[in-house]
Design a protein that fits this description.
This protein is mainly β. It is built from three helices and 18 strands. The chain has three domains: 52-143, Elongation Factor Tu (Ef-tu), domain 3 (Beta Barrel), CATH 2.40.30; 146-253, no CATH class; 263-297, no CATH class.
Length: 308
């Protein structure tokens, strides 16, 4: 006997999109040149989105205002960190906001959400070493509103070569410099779906878990940049960056394939099992001569079909 199941209805829910784009940027004033990951966290919403599903970070050293972690913290300017128990001057119940990230394992914070400009003075704490201070992280996705658009994501159960494009318009010129001056191809990108409660405007929570899910995980394969120069001097130049991305399946399908024919690669000595009256023995075989004449054929011209 068939049973009718009532449809699940959760009125007042709508969704948005979060984009996490990581590229490698050059660290200023380094010789030899060093690079560090730089990540853009953007949301197609009117207000910032805070994701508290991010893993915590452990602070091991404090030097006045500089906090050092035991591993790559993946923090960005504007992220929020809190502590459960007051220690080393870091106060329980106070929201601290990252305002400077000198490296992948160091950062500075301020206790004012509207004061996390890198040029502002950071909070100072009690210095210490060999610490183990765990900080809870709320990842901040900056509101981009309609200036962030994403092509349709394929919904399939099988693994496919899905591609997607992300367009950023009316962006900060600093982002343009970062993308043009960095090897953006090969950068990682994550696209997430976030659900909101319309009644309070906050991220929807079910069983104490924010409703944020990863929809696409891939790599940057190409990008394009366009600019619009206004006729009036009172208006600024506007930029539009389009990033083309592919899943790992597409990256694998486009990989180089074939075999090398260099003579040196086939001249290694090896052993081969040879059968005799006493059984199998390993005999030393010197030099594989398969590609001995390859080097003589390089840049050679052949007149095929020419009369003798």
């Amino acid at each position: 006997m068939a049973q009718n199941i009532a449809p699940v209805s959760r009125p007042g829910i709508h969704y948005g999109t979060l984009v996490e784009l990581t590229i490698m940027v050059v660290v200023p004033d380094t010789d030899p040149v060093e690079r560090m990951p730089f990540t853009l966290y953007l949301a197609d919403t009117a207000t910032d989105v805070w994701d508290n599903n991010y893993p915590n970070v452990t602070v091991t050293d404090i030097a006045t205002d500089l906090l050092t972690t035991s591993a790559d913290h993946r923090l960005a300017v504007g992220d929020r960190v809190t502590i459960a128990t007051t220690t080393n001057g870091i106060t329980e119940g106070v929201d601290y906001y990252v305002n400077l990230v000198p490296s992948a394992t160091t950062f500075k914070v301020v206790d004012n959400q509207f004061n996390f400009d890198p040029g502002n003075t950071s909070n100072t704490f009690t210095s210490g070493t060999e610490l183990s201070i765990e900080l809870d992280v709320d990842k901040r996705y900056a509101a981009a509103g309609g200036f962030l658009s994403i092509s349709e994501v394929q919904n399939t159960l099988e693994t496919t070569n899905s591609e997607i494009s992300v367009q950023l318009s009316a962006i900060n010129p600093a982002y343009v410099t970062a993308i043009l001056g960095s090897p953006i191809k090969g950068g990682e990108i994550k696209i997430k779906r976030v659900f909101f409660d319309l009644f309070n405007g906050q991220v929807d929570v079910v069983d104490d878990v924010q409703q944020i899910y990863t929809r696409f995980n891939g790599f940057v394969t190409n990008f394009s940049l366009s600019e619009t120069i206004p006729q009036s001097r009172d208006e600024s130049i506007s930029y539009v960056i389009t990033v083309m991305c592919s899943s790992i399946v597409g990256v694998i399908q486009n990989r180089l394939s074939g075999r090398r024919t260099n003579n040196n690669l086939y001249r290694d000595d090896y052993e081969e099992l040879v059968f005799s009256d006493s059984g199998y023995t390993a005999e030393h075989i010197a030099k594989d001569s398969t590609f001995n004449r390859i080097e003589t054929l390089v840049n050679a011209s052949f007149d095929f079909g020419k009369p003798a």
